[in-house]
Amino acid sequence: MAPGEESDSGMGSMPDSSKDVTPEKKRRECKYDDDDIEDETLAERLWGLTEMFPEKVRDATFTLYCGTKTGLKSLYGFTRSSFWILFSSSAILFAPVMFEIERAQVEEAQRSQQKQVFK
């Protein structure tokens, strides 16, 4: 090779692109490269991860999930029923007592007013 001649590395007469690329250009190029990839939803990613676990692990996880879901539904229903019984019973049992206390207070107030009027 003669002095002053550049070696041809199979790229033809293309300029060396690593010298011309600025960090801003690299960011723009990366941005366009990311746009070509289709976005996956979270559900699709999780479904893809299931393939790396054995069938027994997936079945056990599914059974645990279903059992937990059923248990929580039952607990929720029981709690609702319990609160309904508790509050309705307390209203039925304590309402008459509260009415009697209120009536006694009103009568006492009337008596004290009558005593003040007659003094």
UniProtKB/TrEMBL annotation:
* Basic and acidic residues: bias regions: 17-31
Q: Which family does it belong to?
A: Belongs to the Tom22 family.
Query: This chain belongs to which protein, by name?
Result: Mitochondrial import receptor subunit TOM22 homolog
Disordered: annotated span: 1-33
Q: Name one GO cellular component term.
A: mitochondrial outer membrane
Q: What is its main location?
A: mitochondrion
BP-aspect Gene Ontology terms? intracellular protein transport
Which Pfam families does this UniProt record tie to the protein? Tom22
**Keywords, comma-separated and alphabetical:** Membrane, Mitochondrion, Mitochondrion outer membrane, Protein transport, Receptor, Translocation, Transmembrane, Transmembrane helix, Transport
InterPro entries recorded: Tom22
List locations, semicolon-separated: Mitochondrion outer membrane
Question: What topology does the record note for this protein and the membrane?
Answer: Single-pass membrane protein
